[in-house]
Structure formats: C-alpha cells, structure tokens
Amino acid sequence: MTNASASMDDGHRDEVVNRVGALLAEIAPAGWTQLLCEYRSVGKHVEVDLLAFGADGSPSPVRPPAEVVSLLGRLRAGMYVPGRGTWLSAMLTVDPPGVVYTDFAHHTQPRWRRNPPPVGFQDELRMYPRDDAHLPAWLRQRAGLASSTGAGRATATPTPDAPAELRTAKVYDGFGGDGRPVVNRAPLNPVEKDRVLEYLGGAPVVLAARSYDTDAFDPGRAPSVPLTFRTDGSWVWPGAVAYYLREHDIAPDPELLAHIRRREYAVPEVGEDARQRAVNLITGQQS
User: Which of 50, 181, 242, 243 has CB 3.0 to 4.6 Å from 64, enough for a Cys bridge?
Assistant: First the structure.
C-alpha cells in the first residue's frame, strides 16, 4: 500500500503551502508577528502544534484549523518519492500577512509529543516504502525490522541516521535597483534581541578572516562587519547577521529566527563532524 498516486507537482505543492499560510494567518491572534506550525507524522499517527508570537516575542499556543491538518496530510502524501519516502515532520514559518517558509525533515526522528505505537512506524514503511539507503536506523528499529545483508527495500543492514542538511542564513532579502541591500523584517523587541544576539554569538566559529567588511547600510563607517561564520549544527550564518541585528536592528533570516525560537534560545553542543560539514558548505566542498 503506497500513496504514490497522490504525487504533486511543484505548482500544486506551492498552492497547498500558500493556502495553509493564508488559513493560519486568518486565525492568528491580533498583533502577531510570526507563526510556527509543526506537523509530525508517521503512518497514521499525526501531531500538529501551532504557536503565535506577539510583539514581545512571547509564544502562545493556538489550535490549528482542521483544514490545515488535512492539507498538510495531503502535502506529505503528495511529496512521496518512490524509494526515498516522504518527510516525517514539517515546520512552517508564517510572517505577516501570510508569507510562508517551509522546512521538511525526511530522516530525522520528530520530537514526538506522544510516542507513536510500533504499528505507526510499520504503517509508514507500508504507505511510503523506502530503499535501504534512505531508511534511517532509528526508523528501522522502531518499525521492528530485523537487520539483514540482503538488498531491497527496508531489509538491508541499518544505515546511520542521515545528518540534517545544513542551511545558510540570508543576510538580506534582496537588492534594490540601486544595488543596495533590501530587508523587510519586523524588528525584535529589546529583550528578544539580546537573547538572539546571545545565541548568534554563542555558536562556535568555524571560519574566520582577520579583516572586516564594509557596513552595507553605513558605507561611510570604517570596515567593521566580522568576516566570520558560525554554526549550531543545523544552520550556518555569517558574522554579518549578528552585526546588523546589533547595529541596525535588522532581524535574522526569518527561518533562522524561527529555529532559534524553537530551540528556546539555547545553543546546542556542536560536534566536530557538524563543524566540518559547515566548513565544507561555506567553502563549496560538499560532496
């Protein structure tokens, strides 16, 4: 049993995502500055959480509309790729008036609110079969599959969990006709600004130059933008992100900001493998 017949093209997928964003914006409380909607599913087990952030950066839970839950289920089924499976969790970040950013996790085990039963993981592999190369060890174990040396789907020797794909933060939203950077992001309140700066500056530096870059918003100032890169194991960002937040109140990339909020402003331990992957990404040496 698979859902391959429900496959969506990119246009249909974008329509569904935009519809979800519009529905969430409609039910958001007054004064909201960002919404985070997390959908987690394995087999027929589904969890959905929705948080609305106010002007002070504090979150409040909101009940997601039933249509949103249904649409995200369709999206998950429609994004199934034969042999590779589909995503297990999705984080949708919605900025006013309803601009949506998406982050899909195909290999990482979701942080379940309620632990799914074993049949949920078994159903997952029946509904969305995966070749061995795309079957993380945790999913094999939780589905109760025995290890073997044979080839095929969901029967080979367990493979290590695939590391999460690193993402690079955008410093600007684009450039204007005059070549100057353009940003369209709501400023952070002073309390959250300090917490975000602490997070950005608390992650380890993985690459650094001794010189400084020119301030794109104040070119007359002496070069003062750090030419550094940091990572928390999930995201990579240049020193300019913290600099422009501190000096010009320019909030980080909305998706990076949503990630920091989900982590409750606590920088995780970053191992050597993750640091090296960040360096490879920055220098263009990814395989």
Answer: 50
Residue type, 280: N
What is d(CA 282, CA 259) in angstroms, rounded to the nearest whole number?
A: 20
| 95 within 8 A of 110, measured Cβ to Cβ | no
Tokens read off for 10: 């990119």
Write phi, then psi, for 260 (nearest 5 degrees). -65, -40
Coil, strand or helix at 223: coil
Q: Are 198 and 252 in contact (CB under 8 A)?
A: no
C-alpha span between 62 and 92 (Å, rounded): 14
- Residue 83, Ramachandran bin (φ over 0: left; ψ between -120 and 50: alpha; else beta): left
Longest C-alpha distance within the chain, in Å? 65
Query: CA 228: distance to chain centroid?
Result: 22
Q: ∠ CA(162), CA(111), CA(157), 5° rounding?
A: 35
Q: Against a cut of 0.70, is the pTM above it?
A: no
Which runs of consecutive H residues, i.e. helices, occur in the chain?
10-27, 66-78, 118-127, 137-142, 190-202, 239-248, 254-262, 272-283
74, 79, 128, 144, 207 from 3: Cα distances, Å: 10, 9, 7, 22, 44
Amino acid, res. 209: A
What pLDDT digit, counting tens, does each position of 231-272 carry? 999 999 999 999 999 999 999 999 999 999 988 899 998 988
β-pair partners for 94: 35, 100
